[in-house]
Amino acid sequence: MNPDSPKLQRLQSELEAEQQHPQQKTTQTSTAREFATPEEMLRHDAAQTVVPPGIKTRLADSVQQEPAPNRSPSWWQKLFR
Amino acid sequence: MAAAVIEPPSQRKRPAPVPLEVGAPEFAALYQAHSRAIYYLCLRMLNDPTKAEDATHDVFVKAWRHLDQFQGKSSWRTWLYRIAINHCRNLQQGWAERHVFPTADEFVLQDTVPDPASPFRVLEIKELGERIRRTLDHLPPEYRLLLLLVADQELSYEQVGALTEQTADAVRGKLHRARKAFAAEFEKTA
């Protein structure tokens, strides 16, 4: 990439600004925020929610002890319908 | 001849569980795609992270047992939601005998209801989860479920209607009241 290209210059100036004001960015992400609807707020909340990793481990254990399901040959093909 | 040593069952070591990706890779993909949505629904319906964790596990075990019953007429997300809603409702039945929740018809909005069309301003995003928990806790269960399902952009109003046993038009109508109720309760948590 040409070091004098406008794209690179903009990136550099953004990086410099970030280095000079690192706290500003942190403050922006951790304080006020507006949501247009309750659903938008719930979506944000859901996206921030971490699924406890223990569930997957327990599930693997439970599935191992269960008899294999009576699977039709193509059930997994419907997975991402 | 050496005597065979037989360990009592309680002392036998259980084999380490095979990771889901290895033992059931397609099911692992299903879990990966939908576990967050199911866990979040359980968390907000049951209002308890430990119960939500157990419920999410149980929902996916039920799904595993009944994989052959999935007809492909609905999406996997809708199918899993149906299992989760029924499971959470069963768990809540015991609590309902001890707690009285207002129904949507009984829920009375005060005169000073904020305009639901105005944006919700949250000053401290880190407190958002707790405020949402307290807000949903005071809503009629019908409104709570409706808002949680509509918030999932993978579901259409028709699918939300099918999950809550009403028409898409009824969903639209109740959603307006649910938003108002949410706005009123959310303001109280500030």
Summarize the structure.
The complex is a heterodimer of chains A (81) and B (190). Chain A is mainly alpha-helical.
CATH superfamily of the largest domain in chain B: Winged helix-like DNA-binding domain superfamily/Winged helix DNA-binding domain
Q: Tell me the domain tally of chain B.
A: 2
**Element-by-element helix/strand order of chain B:** HHHHEHHHH
- Along the chain, the helix and strand elements of chain A come as HHEHH
C-alpha end-to-end distance of chain B: 77 Å
* Count of alpha/pi helices of chain A: 4
Distance between the termini of chain A: 42 Å
- Mean pLDDT of chain A, rounded to whole units? 70
**Could you tell me the strand content of chain A as a percent range?**
under 5%
Characterise this structure.
The complex is a heterodimer of chains A (81) and B (190). Chain A is mostly helical and 81 residues long. In chain A, 58% of the residues lie in helices and 4% in strands. Chain A contains 4 helices and 1 strand. Chain A has helices spanning 6-20, 22-30, 38-48, 54-65, and one strand spanning 33-35. Chain A is elongated, with a radius of gyration of 24 Å. With 190 residues, chain B is mainly alpha-helical. Chain B folds into 2 domains: 22-100, RNA polymerase sigma factor, region 2, helix turn helix motif (Rna Polymerase Sigma Factor, Chain: A), CATH 1.10.1740; 101-190, Arc Repressor Mutant, subunit A, CATH 1.10.10.10. Helices cover 59% and strands 2% of the residues of chain B. The N and C termini of chain B lie far apart (77 Å). The model of chain B has no long low-confidence stretch (mean pLDDT 85). Chains A and B meet through strand 1, helix 3 and helix 4 of A and helix 2, helix 3, strand 1, helix 5 and helix 6 of B.
Descriptive terms for the model:
heterodimer, A: 81 residues, mainly alpha, 4% strand, B: 190 residues, Rna Polymerase Sigma Factor, Chain: A, Arc Repressor Mutant, subunit A, 2% strand, globular
